[in-house]
Amino acid sequence: TQLLEQSPQFLSIQEGENLTVYCNSSSVFSSLQWYRQEPGEGPVLLVTVVTGGEVKKLKRLTFQFGDARKDSSLHITAAQPGDTGLYLCAAFMEYGNKLVFGAGTILRVKS
Amino acid sequence: DTAVSQTPKYLVTQMGNDKSIKCEQNLGHDTMYWYKQDSKKFLKIMFSYNNKELIINETVPNRFSPKSPDKAHLNLHINSLELGDSAVYFCASSHLKRLAGGGEQFFGPGTRLTVL
Fold this sequence. Notes:
The complex is a heterodimer of chains A (about 110) and B (about 120).
Chain A: E1 5-7, E2 10-14, E3 19-24, E4 32-37, E5 44-49, E6 55-58, E7 61-65, E8 71-76, E9 85-93, E10 98-101, E11 105-110
Parallel strand pairs in A: 2-11
Antiparallel strand pairs in A: 1-3, 3-8, 4-5, 4-9, 6-7, 7-8, 9-10, 9-11
Chain B: E1 4-7, E2 10-13, E3 19-25, E4 31-37, E5 43-50, E6 53-57, E7 64-70, E8 73-78, E9 87-94, H1 96-100, E10 106-107, E11 111-115
Parallel strand pairs in B: 2-11
Antiparallel strand pairs in B: 1-3, 3-8, 4-5, 4-9, 5-6, 7-8, 9-10, 9-11
């Protein structure tokens, strides 16, 4: 059982559609991050959320941290082919001083 | 101005061989990491060094040995390679205290290791 459960695992949509990716856990976190990884490259940080209920926007991407700080969502409005990639949520574990990643959501946006 | 660099990008080798992957960061970070990403894209930490000291050693076979000659470098040596070692290996770096406070971890471009 993974600490961070991401859903869906794979998403294939048409350009212009909206989508939401979820990251859930039974644990409480002080912060949660979303990374995006393109083929052949390493993950790149998109956002960090730290306050329960917090909402952050990055152009067409909206990130939300759950009130109880156990879950987060990433919503993309009017998806574009350039949004294609692997989206990873991650949380810092104080026990171990390390980032733990979810299994990721592979997003494919078709033009 | 590459922040975290890894060499080689691709590595194809036979079972039983010994190979090394090199990593360098020019961000002045105090902590470096090695991750393994399997075929299902799951990213799992293997090792972490803070100021050249090993601080994280996950349940990784002894065939994997990290070495940090200085704060800017963390190399990964793998002995007696096995088929199951095939994966993409990522090096990363951060300031440990900033990471704990929600700071960013910077990743290299990855090394795709294929064991035949």
